[in-house]
Amino acid sequence: MQGGMMRHRGFTLIELLIVITLIALMVAVAVPCFLRAQVAARQSNACTLMKALVSHEAVWRSQDFDRNGTGDYWVRDVRGLYGIRDQVGSPVALINVAFARADRAAAFSYALQVDTTQPNKGYFVQAMTTDQDGLPYVDAALPPPSAEPVSGPCSNRSRFGFTAFPEVYGQTGISVFVVGEDGIIREKDDGAGAPALDRRQVDAAGDWRLAGG
């Protein structure tokens, strides 16, 4: 001791390197776990969106929101479930704005705040154009809607199909999800995937499995 005080030595270079190495190892383990948890949460949200579409289609069919006089499903896009106008000119708003904006392929301009496309928690959604048998969802024989601002054939009496897919594969999500009128959500990992619009058709031979299975 000197002057009643004890000298305290600092960390040596080797000790500092050991600490830095341990921190780097902890980060290397923690970051991938965190990213996987984020992807899992976003995929769970995508499934929730698919479930919601099944419920909203049932309401649509029972209340004839497009006012074409027929009990049918809306199959042209997702955004119309918000943007189609009711009899007093207000949006029907079966889904919220964030949900409507996630539609990657809206069929019409709804002249509303939903006419901006952005993913919902890392996922886009779309109405599919054909089913696994190659049959179109839009039934040209049904009456066109009377509601604004849509036109032309837009519905189907018995079938519909929707898909959700990640904005950036591997970062915001991995699985592509599909759902139809049976309410069963299926998923698959299609790698980097097809371009967004190609996902509007479902390949019958694809390795689809029950979501979460």
Strand order of the biggest β-sheet: 2-4-5-6-7
Mean pLDDT equals 86
Secondary structure class reads alpha+beta
- Would you report the number of β strands? 7
Could you say which overall geometry the principal axes of the C-alpha atoms support?
A: elongated
Give the helix level as a range of percent. 25-40%
**Low-pLDDT windows of residues:** none
How many domains, as an integer? 1
Q: Kindly, what is the distance between the CA atoms of the first and last residues, rounded to a whole number of angstroms?
A: 68 Å
Q: Can you walk me through this structure?
A:
With 213 residues, the protein is an alpha+beta fold. 28% of the residues lie in helices and 13% in strands. It contains 3 helices and 7 strands; from the N terminus they run αβααββββββ. The chain has helices at residues 13-63, 80-83, 97-101; strands spanning 73-74, 123-127, 155-156, 161-166, 175-180, 185-189, 209-210. It has a 5-stranded antiparallel β-sheet with strand order 2-4-5-6-7, covered by helices on one side. A hairpin with a 4-residue loop joins strand 5 and strand 6 (185-189).
Keywords for this entry:
single chain; 213 residues; alpha+beta; 5-stranded antiparallel sheet; two-stranded antiparallel sheet; 7 strands; elongated
Which helices and strands occur, and which strands form pairs?
Blueprint: H1 13-63, E1 73-74, H2 80-83, H3 97-101, E2 123-127, E3 155-156, E4 161-166, E5 175-180, E6 185-189, E7 209-210
Antiparallel strand pairs: 1-3, 2-4, 4-5, 5-6, 6-7
